[in-house]
């Protein structure tokens, strides 16, 4: 029989969660403070650990069952946020990262750089999960709808950056590959104050060309860079 955790991490969208070790969940030290945030903490914990009583009880209120199940999923998320910043959790996320299980950066200049799930806040239910690219150092909202309902707090704001402190070569390699985007007009790079210079030159409409001061000879630009 599939364990509850294996079932949960196999759900569509939940592939970005790692499988938290039973031993981590069973160590109450790791869960300090979580019980006060749940109405059915004990029951939710029993579901996560496959220890719930399977005896069918016609009297059990179905809506309460649903609520306990929802709390189990949320509790697992909070435990997950704590687990993935431990050495073991970081390693398990490393395995998923190098397999590309979190997807790639949508930015052209990052050339398919792998990204990491992250929270833009640690406050629960405030923001869904985002993805961090180590190449361009940016956060992205995932385009796949299946991540819309995943709380960013289940990954947290620390994880991605502790990850790259733990595996710094991954970040350094990503930064080497990522290329900044360089805008060009008629083949010329833009002066760093191009838009201000254009405004100052009184450029108003599409019928006149922008002032040449806004454009930089390519060679001069290469030297600046
Ligand atoms: Zn990127």
The count of DSSP E runs of length 2 or more, i.e. the number of strands, is 6
Which compounds are bound in this model? zinc ion
CATH class of the largest domain: Mainly Beta
- CA-CA gap between termini: 60 Å
Number of helices: 9
Per the principal axes of the C-alpha atoms, what is the gross shape?
elongated
The gyration radius over C-alpha positions equals 25 Å
Helix content: 25-40%
**Physical arrangement of strands within the biggest beta sheet:** 1-2-3
Biggest beta-sheet profile:
3 strands, antiparallel
| Helix/sheet category | mainly alpha
Q: Using the coordinates shown, work out and report the CATH topology of the largest domain.
A: N-terminal domain of TfIIb
Low-pLDDT sequence parts: 220-225
Order of helices and strands: HHHHHEEEHHEEHEH
**How much of the residues is beta strand, in percent?**
5-15%
Give the mean pLDDT: 90
Domain count: 3
Can you tell me about this structure?
With 225 residues, the protein is mostly helical. Helix content is 38%, strand content 8%. The protein has three domains: 1-83, Orthogonal Bundle (protein kinase ck2 holoenzyme, chain C, domain 1); 86-181, Single Sheet (N-terminal domain of TfIIb), CATH 2.20.25.20; 184-224, no CATH class. It contains nine helices and six strands; from the N terminus they run αααααβββααββαβα. The structure holds zinc ion. Residues 105, 107, 110, 113, 133, 135-136, 138, 178 line the site of zinc ion.
